[in-house]
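Exercise (ungraded).
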Amino acid sequence: MNIEQNTDVVVPARNFPVGGSILEVKNISLSFGGVNAITDTSFKVLEHEIRAIIGPNGAGKSSLLNCINGIYRPQEGTISFRGKPLGRISPNIVAQIGISRTFQNLALFKRMSVLDNILVGRKLHMSSSFLSVAVQLPSAMREERKNREKCEEIIQFLEIAHIRDTPVGKLPYGLQKKVELGRALATEAEMLLLDEPMAGMNVEEKRDMCRFILKVNDELGTTMVLIEHDMGVVMDISDNVVVLDYGKIIGDGPPDEVRANQEVIDAYLGVAHD
Amino acid sequence: MKPSTVFMSYTRNDLTNFVILMGLGFAVVPFVVQTDYWYSSILIPWLCLSLAAVGQQIVMGYAGQLALGAAGFMAAGAFALFNLELRLPFMPFPFNLMISGLIAAFFGIIFGLPSLRVRGIYLMVATLAAQFFIIWMIDKFGWFKNYDTSGIITAQDIVIFGREFTSPFEMYLVVLVTVTVLTVLAINMTRGSTGRNWMAVRDMDIAAESMGISLLRTKLQAFAISAFFCGVAGALFAFTYLKSMEPVAFDIKLSFRILFMVILGGLGTINGAFIGAAFILLFPVVLNTLGNGVFHGMIDATIISSIELVVFGVLIIVFMIYEPLGMAKLWDSIKAKLAPQSTLEQAQEKQQRL
């Protein structure tokens, strides 16, 4: 087991070098009643990059993902993916466009098995109508088999083969997080939004998770936007970092640059306000 | 075991169990059961109500939408078939039966619409509208009953391709074939992508939506398919069991009975629908036989029917608390205890405990 090597050494040549902008968030503002969750925020996510969003609790990180994903609708501003504005569309359409995600507080289908959870992630690759499923038309059977094979690959990749038939509700937290990542991977989306994929994990589990994220990014070129609190992880794996505080962007750039930013340091360590 | 322990692991058993059950129905029952009473009073209503319970199971156990209007959709199916047979007598019976299911499905879609806005107990109240509206509509507009004023409308004879199916045994065969075919379709759907989409919506709708599942389509699809099953079940119920068309037979009490079948049988399994239906239907029979046979009529009939209600009530509470997955799960646990455990399973269990 040579996990260290995978996480600590930066891969020199990437199969998918970071390209131009793929997602553009422009001047979005979101408020709940009188509370401003996000205020006039703009940033770009580049193709094939791993982008971290960091910030203290309540900074609006999850709200930002929810806006991109279509769960929340910002009152102002636009979000465009590959140049097309997302507008007021629901999460299932966003998924069709090619953005998938995981959730902060685990949103798995608790009473279904691990395999079935991941299979739901294949939804957009399965177009058989309920009638052809009901009468088991050969086309529907073929589709089912093909997608099951794909899911088995993901299960192998994430090293969760031993729990593939267990209902996810029975699994410990770390494994559930892995299953959720698996479900997001199964969509084969161009862009993944990962909301605290490593929260509550121990060092070893975090390393595993980093390894998976890096590997997917490298092999499939998936653009990743992840929210993370562990600075070590963020500095290690991300290409660029956005720092949010009180719904505003206070830093945006490569990890080293952000780390040296005085405003970011203040936000994290606290500073006496006049 | 906690309620979250689950389902999908044994939906796989549904097909095997069902094949065994129907194998018995086709191969054994005709030789063993000779009395008309068993066919017309027990087997036929059991199969019809099981089919309705499968419908309820789809919308409630799989798609997780609390709906309470199964009897309304059954009435829609029954009267649709009556009118089709009356007005289009040249059409083959199986075709008309299917159309009446589709008409019920149409009502299912309409009364499923509130599910897009409300959930849980509020949805249950909203779907009650189906129950009351459909019965009201049939009563209000004479056309549905062919302007019959006597109040007793006899159902037409079942004629399939020139052959009459009128004896209880023949009717049993018609019902058995229909229920078998439709249930296999239901099992296929629940095991395939259709069922997974329903369960995903049931377990976590936001995540389901983020995976590309349209809540609108999936919920309405479940309502439509559920109502289709209820509609066909209602049509068969009226034509082979009641043998007459009366809206009162499809009152709210029947909706509740179907709901109880699904809850007692076990949410989220097709087997559960059959077990629940058998229990709800047979229990009063058993109780009556006990009352008459053992106590020789010493116990008043009204007391017996009260006991029945008390026992149902208690059982529902007990199941809700101790085994929310119902009798189907209970049966599986018993089977698992009796069957010699393989070493692989033991190892897996050990691993899970660690």
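Further reading is listed at the end of the chapter. For now, observe: The first strand of chain B starts at residue 153 and ends at 154. The two ends of chain B are 16 Å apart (CA to CA).
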